Amino acid sequence: MDDPVAVLRVAVDSAVQAVLRLDPRHADARQEIDRVLAGFATATAPVRDRLLELAALTPNGPVSTALGFLRDAGDQAAGGDVQAARVFLLAGRTALFRLARAGPTDG
Question: Which domain of life does the UniProt lineage start with (predicted)?
Answer without folding.
Answer: Bacteria
